[in-house]
Each structure stands twice: as structure tokens, then as C-alpha cells.
Design goal:
- This protein is of the alpha+beta class and 711 residues long.
- The N terminus and C terminus are likely disordered.
- Strands 2, 3, 4, 5, 8, 15 and 16 form a seven-stranded mixed sheet that branches. A six-stranded antiparallel sheet has the order 11-10-9-20-19-18. A three-stranded antiparallel sheet has the order 1-6-7, with no helix packed on it.
- The protein is built from 26 helices and 20 strands.
- The chain is elongated, with a radius of gyration of 39 Å.
- The chain has a domain of 372 residues: DD-peptidase/beta-lactamase superfamily (Beta-lactamase, 3-Layer(aba) Sandwich).
- Helix content is 41%, strand content 19%.
- It catalyses: Preferential cleavage: (Ac)2-L-Lys-D-Ala-|-D-Ala. Also transpeptidation of peptidyl-alanyl moieties that are N-acyl substituents of D-alanine.
- It is found in: Cell membrane; Membrane.
- Pathway: Cell wall biogenesis; peptidoglycan biosynthesis.
- Its EC number is 3.4.16.4.
- It comes from Neobacillus kokaensis.
Length: 711
């Protein structure tokens, strides 16, 4: 018995010793391992713990301005008080909702764009446990096993939220939802505009005073486009997207590749769109240094950014305004005084330097009926000068005569009998009166249709006999159109604006249609094409590319002045007429007779003018296809006018187009508009020369005194 006890006693200490030894061994290994980690890998782990991340954020800058040719600001940027929100990387949506709710108590926002989806998103954030219960255990299991992604779960939650859950929100909660939606639409660390329109001084002050309690919120200055001359030229200046619209979906990838943000404002149409790369500017760049948790440790401004570059337009803003007023006045006058002008709803004027292609005025007006009041309202329609086309009538006869010379079917001073032309089984076609035996100059002077008919029938190889059938070569249509295209008729002029149209060529090849083509009553042309056409004749045969941008300049910050020139748009000759100089001079002479001789069709408006204009009138029988759809197909008269002045040394070319001017008979609104526009151009020129002389006298009074004493 005692021996057994002793044996047991001696065995226990051995086990304890072994246990202690094992523990000691394990601790020794642990200490050695910790020492290895600290000594060998300590610096690596320290760097990992202290690791930071540099995130560069680009902040938008105001767009470039637009000036007229004399340096007057046309498009500017108006400063706006703005409230912004910057989302940090570690900011939770719950925290964002709390901030939105605080903002909703001190500012108003537009809630019209709050949708049910926005309300549901808000409900899920506010009710996480209830949202979780909308998903079954089986569905959560599929998610846990990575068979479903979170997007699938979230969409199920959205679908299962009852309408009753989201229809009880108060006005303040709806405001919070609208604010949260804007806050959540931007990138992390990129300021997102919450409100920048109609921010009241009280709202701005209240937010500023509570910034400590509104994490991520800031007050700043934003901008919006200001159109100094109101609606003048507004349709070609273009539009800019709002901060809410951001980048257009159809161009998203293109802009994102150029370092744009989704909520950046960009040009949507015409000049703003065409010159987006110039006007957009260089963004301010800020590097945000963040720790591993996403907290911003510091900010460093890499680049202050620069406002977009400025555009100097070829447009003369003062002249443009005068031209627009003339169009408006004459249209209203015609609508009031003549019962035949019921369908008249638009008119266009283009003024162009025939030697450089610079557009001095690009004016269009359109009458639109207000849907609520039913009243007609005048709106800018400058874009219609190159996006709409019409039958323009006899203004093209200069091109017809020159085509006749070129093809050799007529020669300068050839005489043709102006009498009705009748092809068997077709109605007779004639001039507005029978002029007898006339030459090419008289044909232009009195606007003979028959002279043009016989010319193009010769081009087509037809042998005309009164009231007999005639065979023509249909290739004549192409011959005439190709010749017309050298002047810019029926082709794109190359104007530096998007969406230019070419017009519509007729599809039939009957002899009667060929004759219509010769007098501008078959194919359609744009007002800008007419301006290029008459400029080509005026300058002696060079088809100049029209352009509305004259220069690109560096911006001058916070000053209403022009910076250094970056690029100057040079005149560009698109083609030279393949015709003799004497032929072109012959047509110039005919155009001069139109306006300066007693029988000229425009002499009643332009004869004896000090600026000695030349030009050609046009009247075309057409069909209405405007906004009054119930009247489509109604026979109407289109009126047009082309002109240049002075005759011996042209400095301005003009095209006037008044579609659907009247039914039956009516006022010569093309001529009244054209006369007043040309008068305005030269009156303004004289006025400026007088002002320049007075300023010169004021600046050099001593020289003036000396000159007076010498006299």
C-alpha cells in the first residue's frame, strides 16, 4: 500500500515539469518570432500602418467669354452664391442623410425631380433593420454563398417597399431627399453643387454659420452664362448644360476620356459645343492626401486652374442688333397691314465681308405662337440662316448666266427673244412681262425668266420650237448644279457652326423642271449659301469660307478686356470660279443695273444711294411647310434679295430671305428689309468714322489748332 502511494507521488512532479518545459518552449518560440517580426519586418509593417494615398481632384472653372469684333462682351459669366457638398471616402450614407436633414431645415431646394426611387433609397438608409427583413433567409443564404451580389439584394428591397412606406414623408423630409440625391451624385472628394440658383442671402448666411455642424458642406461662388444682348444671336451662341444635367449621355465616354467629371457643364449646341475644348478652360487640381481609413490628412493645390479661353466673333453686335430690329419691325408691319401675310413667320439676313468670309451679321427671326395665350411671339432664329433652305427665285440668275457663258451656249451681249415658252402638253412659262429681244444685261436688270429658260434648254441640247415637244439631255441638271456649287449654292458653305444643311435638289428631270432650276424655283438653298454666292460674284470669283469666329484669345482674369491672341482665323478660299474675269464683271454690271437703272427690279429702293449698291431680287412660287401643319401645301411666294456695295469696291455682301411672305400678292418685304439693312450698315460706318475723328481731335488738340490756323 505505502509503496504504491510513493510511486504515484514521484510521477506527478515529472508531468508538471514537462508541462512547464513545453510552455517555456512555446513562449521562447513566440518571443523569437516577435523579435524576428520587429527586427526584420518592423519597418515594413510600420510603413503599411502609416500608408497614405494621394487622390487628385479636378475642380471646374468658369467658361471662356465671347466678344464681338469690336471687343464688346456678348457672353459673360455671372457669379452665383453656391452651396456645395464634398463626400469623403469614409463617409457613410447614414451620415450623409443626417447632413441632408440639417440642410433641409435651413434652405429650400427644388423637389420636383424627387422620384419614388429616391424616396425608397432614403427609406432603406433610415430603416436598415426593416429593409433587411424584406429579404428571406434563403435569399440571404444565396448572397452569403456569393451566388447573388448585393445589387440583386438591393433591387429586391426596392421592389418590396410598400407605397404606404414612402407616401407619408413631410415637405422637409422630401427636401432632405432632394438634397441627399444631389450630395450622392458626385465622386468622393469632388465638390458637388447642392444649390447654385436663387440662393438667398439668408440661406447663404445660415449655411455659413453652421458649417461646423455640416460635415462636407461649404459655401462658395459658382457661375452661370450671361447673355449681354438678351436673345440676340442666342440660337447660335449655343447652350451649356446645367450642373444637374452634367455630361450628355451620348458623349459621356468622349468627355470622360478628356478628364471631365460627370457633373461638369459642357456646351450642348452651336458655338458653345463647337468650341468646347477652347471655352472649357483648365481645371484647378487639388491633391488630397488620405490615410488608410480614408480620412483627409492634407490638401495641396497643384494647379490654380484657368478660366476658358475667349472667342472674338466676326459679328458686329451693334449692327446685329439694328438688323434684328429691322427684321422684327418689317415683319410686324407686314402682318398688321396686309391680309395676305397670314403664313409669314420668319425672315433672315446675312451680312458678310466678301473678301474674308467674316460674318458681320447673322440674323433670323421667327414668330412662334404661345401655346397658352395663342399670341404670336418673336424669337431669335439666327440658326435658320444655315439650317433651313427655301426656293429663293431669281436671285440665282447671275449663276445661270455665268453657267451659260461657261458652257458656251450664250456669250456676253447675246440677244434672245423674251416671249412665252410653251412645250407641247405643258402650260406656257413666261417672264412677269414680255420684254422682246433682250441681251444678258437686260435679262438681269428686268429679271427675265425666258432668257434663263432658253439658256438652260440650250445647255441640255434641246431644240426649242413653240408648242412642240423637246428632247433634253438630263445630264444638264448635273451640269447646272455642279456650276452652281462653285458659288456655294446647293452645297455646304463650310461655316464654322454645326448642323449646316445643303438644301434639297429636285428629283425629276423634265424640261419644265430644268427651266424652274434656272430661275431658283426647283432646288432649295439656305440664306448663308446666298450670301456666299453673292460674295463670290462681288469679289471677282473666289468662294470664301464664311466664319463667325475671328480670334481665340487668352483670358484676362476679372477684367472686361481682351487678352493676347492665341489664334487668328485666316480667310480661306474654297475654290475659284472656273470662268473668265470679264464674264464675272459682266454679271456684276447686270446686278448694278438692277439697282441703279430705272427699269431695274430694285431701283425703287436702291437707286441713287450714296453707297452705290448692286444686287438681284428674287420671287419664287413655293408651297408652305411651316408650323401651321393644317396649311401645309398652301401656295405662297418666297422673297429674296442679294446685294453688295459699293459696286466698284465691295466691302459688304448681303442676302435677305423671306419665306412664305404672302399668298397671291403682297409687300416687297425683301426690298424694304434689304434697303434698311444696307442703310444701317453705312450709317453706322459713317457715325463711327465721325466719332473716331472727334476722339482724335480731343487727344491731339494742339495739332488741330495748328491745322485750323494754317487753313
Amino acid at each position: 500500500m505505502n509503496k504504491k502511494k510513493k510511486k504515484k507521488k514521484s510521477h506527478v512532479p515529472f508531468r508538471l515539469n514537462m508541462l512547464f518545459f513545453v510552455v517555456f518552449l512555446l513562449f521562447s518560440i513566440l518571443i523569437l518570432r516577435l523579435g524576428e517580426i520587429q527586427i526584420v519586418f518592423g519597418d515594413d509593417f510600420k510603413r503599411e500602418i502609416e500608408r497614405t494615398e494621394d487622390i487628385t481632384v479636378s475642380n471646374p472653372v468658369p467658361r471662356g467669354k465671347m466678344f464681338d469684333r469690336s471687343g464688346k462682351v456678348i457672353v459673360d459669366n455671372t457669379p452665383l452664391n453656391a452651396i456645395t457638398y464634398t463626400k469623403y471616402q469614409n463617409t457613410s450614407q447614414t451620415e450623409m442623410v443626417k447632413t441632408a436633414e440639417k440642410l433641409a431645415k435651413i434652405m429650400d431646394v427644388d423637389t420636383k425631380k424627387v422620384r419614388d426611387r429616391d424616396k425608397k433609397d432614403y427609406w432603406i438608409i433610415k430603416n436598415p433593420e426593416q429593409a433587411k427583413e424584406l429579404i428571406t433567409e434563403k435569399e440571404w443564404s444565396l448572397y452569403d454563398n456569393k451566388k447573388w451580389d448585393y445589387k440583386k439584394i438591393y433591387n429586391l428591397q426596392l421592389d418590396r417597399i410598400k407605397e404606404s412606406e414612402i407616401n407619408h414623408y413631410t415637405k422637409e423630409e422630401i427636401k432632405a431627399i432632394a438634397i441627399f440625391k444631389k450630395m450622392n451624385s458626385g465622386y468622393a472628394l469632388a465638390p458637388q453643387i447642392v444649390k447654385n440658383k436663387d440662393v438667398t442671402p439668408q440661406e447663404f448666411a445660415a449655411v455659413s454659420e453652421n458649417l461646423e455642424n455640416l460635415p462636407g458642406v461649404d459655401t462658395t461662388t459658382d457661375w452661370e452664362r450671361k447673355y449681354v444682348f438678351g436673345d440676340t444671336l442666342k440660337t447660335i451662341l449655343g447652350k451649356v448644360s446645367s450642373s444637374e444635367e452634367g455630361l450628355p449621355k451620348e458623349s459621356l465616354e468622349k468627355y470622360m476620356a478628356k478628364d471631365y467629371s460627370r457633373n461638369d457643364r459642357v456646351g450642348k449646341s452651336y458655338l458653345e459645343y463647337k468650341y468646347e475644348d477652347v471655352l472649357h478652360g483648365q481645371k484647378a487640381k487639388v491633391i488630397n492626401k488620405t490615410d488608410k481609413a480614408g480620412n483627409v490628412l492634407s490638401q495641396e493645390v497643384v494647379s490654380e486652374g484657368q478660366r476658358g479661353k475667349d472667342l472674338v466673333l466676326t459679328i458686329d453686335a451693334e449692327l446685329q442688333k439694328k438688323v434684328e430690329n429691322i427684321i422684327e419691325d418689317e415683319m410686324w408691319k407686314a402682318k398688321r397691314q396686309y391680309g395676305s401675310t397670314g403664313l409669314l413667320d420668319r425672315a433672315f439676313v446675312v451680312l458678310m465681308d466678301p473678301h474674308t468670309g467674316e460674318i458681320l451679321s447673322l440674323a433670323g427671326k421667327e414668330l412662334i405662337r404661345d401655346k397658352e395665350t395663342g399670341k404670336l411671339e418673336m424669337q431669335d432664329y439666327a440658326q435658320g440662316t444655315f439650317t433651313t433652305s427655301y426656293n429663293v427665285g431669281s436671285t440665282v440668275k447671275g449663276a445661270t448666266i455665268l453657267t451659260g457663258y461657261k458652257t458656251g451656249v450664250i456669250h456676253p451681249n447675246d440677244y434672245l427673244l423674251d416671249a412665252p415658252v410653251k412645250i407641247k402638253d405643258t402650260p406656257a412659262k413666261k417672264s412677269w412681262r414680255n420684254f422682246g429681244n433682250i441681251n444678258d444685261l437686260t435679262a438681269l436688270q428686268v429679271s427675265s425668266n425666258v432668257y434663263m429658260f432658253k439658256t438652260v434648254l440650250k445647255i441640255a441640247g434641246g431644240h426649242y420650237v413653240y408648242n412642240q415637244p423637246i428632247d433634253i439631255n438630263s445630264a444638264a441638271f448635273n451640269t447646272i448644279r455642279k456650276s452652281f456649287s462653285q458659288f456655294g449654292l446647293g452645297v455646304r458653305t463650310g461655316i464654322d457652326l454645326p448642323n449646316e444643311m445643303t438644301g434639297y435638289p429636285g428629283s425629276e428631270t423634265l424640261p419644265g423642271k430644268l427651266m424652274d432650276l434656272a430661275i431658283g424655283q426647283y432646288d432649295t438653298y439656305t440664306p448663308i449659301q446666298l450670301a456666299q454666292y453673292v460674295s463670290t460674284i462681288a469679289n471677282g470669283g473666289n468662294r470664301m469660307q464664311p466664319h463667325v469666329v475671328k480670334e481665340i484669345r487668352e483670358p484676362v482674369m476679372d477684367k472686361e478686356e481682351l487678352g493676347p491672341v492665341i489664334e487668328e482665323i485666316q480667310p480661306k478660299v474654297l475654290n475659284r470660279l472656273d470662268m473668265k474675269d470679264e464674264w464675272i464683271k459682266r454679271v456684276q454690271q447686270g446686278f448694278h443695273m438692277v439697282m441703279q437703272t430705272s427699269n431695274g427690279t430694285a431701283s425703287g429702293y436702291f437707286k441713287g444711294k450714296s453707297y452705290d449698291p448692286a444686287g438681284k431680287t428674287g420671287t419664287a412660287q413655293a408651297f408652305y411647310y411651316g408650323s401651321e401643319r393644317s396649311r401645309w401645301g398652301t401656295p405662297v411666294m418666297n422673297l429674296s434679295l442679294v446685294s453688295f456695295a459699293p459696286y466698284n469696291n465691295p466691302e459688304v455682301a448681303m442676302a435677305v430671305v423671306v419665306p412664305w411672305a404672302y399668298q397671291g400678292s403682297g409687300p416687297s418685304i425683301n426690298n424694304t428689309i434689304g434697303q434698311q439693312v444696307m442703310d444701317a450698315y453705312f450709317d453706322l460706318k459713317k457715325e463711327r468714322q465721325t466719332d473716331k475723328g472727334k476722339k482724335s481731335e480731343e487727344q491731339n488738340p494742339e495739332n488741330n489748332d495748328t491745322n485750323q490756323s494754317d487753313q
